[in-house]
Amino acid sequence: MALYVSAIAFVVPPGQEPLPGQWAVGSITILLAWFNLLDYLQNLPTIGIYVAMFRSVSLTFFKVGALLVFLIVAFGLSFYIILGHEKAFSSGLYSILKTFDMMVGELDYNDMFFTPIYEKRTRYPFDILAIIIFLTCTTFLPIVAINLTVGLAVGDIDKIERNAVLSRIKVQVEFLDQIERELPSIIRERLYYSQEEKKELGFQMKLKTYFKQAQDVVEVEDEDNNTQNEIEEVKDQLKHQDEK
């Protein structure tokens, strides 16, 4: 629904160049469209299981994200009070964003911590306190929190791999159910046959079944003949090798 609304907001009114706000909506529309395509790829038998893994890992991250938000805000506000004279921590919002950046591995210790202390821009007792909070932050966020997220994600992937067949069948059933509910009633009536109608069309159904079974038998016989020919060829090759 959000995709349709954003797409309509981007093209209305038709025939005119979009306004700056509409270009922003257009960027969101493209993002939602590709995510929607990714959701439909889940119905494919080959890569659908990997899309399911991606969704499971994303849900796990969002669940753990509730805990991470408290840690990021706590460390971000602490850095804002101690290192507020630095550009990266000049406001509470910037400080929280920088802390999130540090969580994913961009610690930037030399520019953010060492240089201000060395150049006396951060003086006692804030210099010692900044080092202590920095060490605590690197322990909880990049090490503990990220490893926790990775461990939960690996567990989800292992669970999906063990139930890959059932997961794929579940997704396909949900997809077919969605298609059936969205099809017009006229099309559903033309495609659906009740038990009584199948009985009335019994001869036709039996005829289709007979030819289908006959085709399967022919295919099996062809496979048997090919297998027998391959066995004979292998026997001939072994016989020639024994003679040599």
UniProtKB/TrEMBL annotation:
GO MF terms, alphabetically ordered: monoatomic ion channel activity
GO cellular component, one term: membrane
Pfam families linked to this entry: Ion_trans
Biased composition (Basic and acidic residues): 232-244
Location, primary (coarse class): membrane
Organism domain of life: Eukaryota
Keywords from the named record: ANK repeat, Glycoprotein, Ion channel, Ion transport, Membrane, Repeat, Transmembrane, Transmembrane helix, Transport
Organism the protein comes from: Trichoplax adhaerens (Trichoplax reptans)
Start and end residues of each Ion transport domain: 6-163
Localization annotation: Membrane
Residue stretches of biased makeup (Acidic residues): 221-231
Transmembrane region(s): 23-41, 61-83, 128-154
Membrane topology type: Multi-pass membrane protein
Record keyword Transmembrane present: yes
Name this protein carries in UniProt: Ion transport domain-containing protein
Segments of this protein annotated with the region Disordered: 221-244
UniProt keyword annotation of Glycoprotein present: yes
